[in-house]
Structures are given as C-alpha cells and as structure tokens.
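Why do we care about 3D structure at all? Because function follows from shape, and shape follows, mostly, from sequence. That is the central idea of this module. The next example makes it concrete: a single protein chain, its amino acid sequence, and then its structure expressed as tokens.
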Amino acid sequence: TTIGRVVETGPAVSNGWLDRMVFCFNPHESHFVAHQVQLIPVPADIDPEDALFLPNMESAVNFLMDGRPIIGEAVVVFGQGVVGLLATAQLATLPVSCLVTLDKWPIRRKKSLELGGHFSWDPTAPDLKDKLTAVLDSCVGIKNSDLIFELSGNPEALNQAVDIAGFNTRIVIGSWYGTRRAALNLGTGFHRNRIRFISSQVSTLAPEFTGRWTKERRLTVAWEIIRRIKPADFITHRFDVHRAREAYELLNERPGEAIQVVLAYG
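And the structure:
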C-alpha cells in the first residue's frame, strides 16, 4: 500500500485532486499512474504515517463487526502483529471483562498491554492454559473464553483456540493461511461445545450488515479509529526504498525486533 501526493492530473480530472494526499493499493514505487477511483483521499487532520494503516484498520474493524463482542465477555486475541494490535486497541475501548492477548514476541506483547490488553502471554508457554483458566475464573467466574480472534497467521493456533473455547464460543478467523493447512481436532470438545468458527475477510461485508452498511461507511469508521489510536506509533523501523533488502531481511531473520516497517521515498 502507498500514501503519496498527487503531482499531476489528466485533462478530465478535477483540479481538486492536484497536490492531494491519497491512499492507494499499489506496489512500492516512487511514481505511478492511477485512476481516481483507485484513490482514497486522506483526511487533512490525519498524518500520512497514520494513514498507512488504513487497510489493516479496516480489517480490524471488520473482525469486530463479525465477532460482535458483548458487554462483560472474556476475549482472547491470538496474534499481536499490526492487525492484531489494531483489533486489541478497539477491544480495549469496550466494556469487556477480560482481554487477553497472545504473541510470541515480547515487543508486541508490551505494545499490546500499552493499548489496553489486561494480560499478554506467549502462546507457546507450557502453562498457558492453566494461567488463562485462572485469570478467566477470577475475572468472570468461568474457565473458558467467550470470544476468540485468531489473527496470528499460524494455522496451529486454531487448535489452541478450540482448546480454550467454552460452550458456544465464537472463534473469528481473520488469518490468511495461504497454502498451509490447519489440522483441526474436531472431536468431543468441539462437537459438544457447539463452538462456532466465523470467517472474516475485509473484501466483503457480512450479509446481515449490507442493508445499512457500505464499504464507505466502514472506511469512515476506520479513519475515526485511526484518529484516536494514531497507529504510526507502531512503526519500529523506517528504511529508504533503496534499502528495501535490509527491511525484508529484518522481517525474515529478526522478526522479534519489529512491529511495523515502512519504506520511504526521498
């Protein structure tokens, strides 16, 4: 994704687009030609670095719309990458009784707590289920979570989610697994507990919302939350585009050091 300024317009385009800061789904390059319908104007009061998070924020808004957190619920979020953190930041503003986040990397768990998560642990810890059970029992008097968001990108996390789910727990799957398969245990625990898997993908709106909601309305909500959260604070590294190789090596070899990496031009 790209945030940039319109430097030239065609003869059929309004001059109002000239010099306007815009968002566009476009590969990394310093200049490109785009049709105006591909561009989303960035509100004047939003910093361009905050605006970079628009697509992930829209995804996070969609996750909450599909999960429909209820007052007083115990919520668990697997994965505290950028999209997981954005979902946590929204959940932290709601009157949920307990908000637990899970991520392998300490830098992300720290940020998660700063955003309002009540507890944040390593999902690979051998005593995770015991700790989670104790916290939920203390907070809400139950030993299982009401609502789970699987945003880690790791298909193995789905079995963990099923393991900590309670009766009629909703598991929102926002991860993209690509060609990796999830080997799920759908035996007694899953079957008897009526656990519900909910697929959440930002390219569409759930049918029950389309009577009143549009993608434009969802974008308006995403912009408003960006104003409040100011997610540019998630940026841990900035590279000039000529150093893109270093940026990708960092993410591939030392992911525990980074949250959000951006490429800049000039």
